[in-house]
Amino acid sequence: SYNIIYQVLDFVKIKMSGLLVPDVEEKVIGSAEILEIFKVSKVGKVAGSKVIEGEITQDSNARVIRDGTIIFNGKIGSIFREKNQAKQVAAGLECGITLKDFSDFQKKDIIEVYNSTITERRI
Q: If DSSP codes are grouped into helix, strand and coil, which group holds residue 91?
């Protein structure tokens, strides 16, 4: 119970705000096209890719797009540049990309890397 009406209003606003779905804003950092698929021991399948635009950064969110349809959403596992592990690869360069929990790559697939920010909504 509350003695002051403003405390009740604040309590109700906080509770109702918790029921709202947060806003998720995605910003595409870069994309790469898969040119070849390589099988590497201890790693699994590696997508030999060329960065089309932007840059690909390690530990970012990624989605695999095949024929305009998103077939996987997850995180980048590792990026290899000339057999050395890299943190990021810029546009125009080729690299090998592995994704966490995904290995069903096909040639001409697009790997799109993005950042997402979650904003809580308030009443």
A: coil
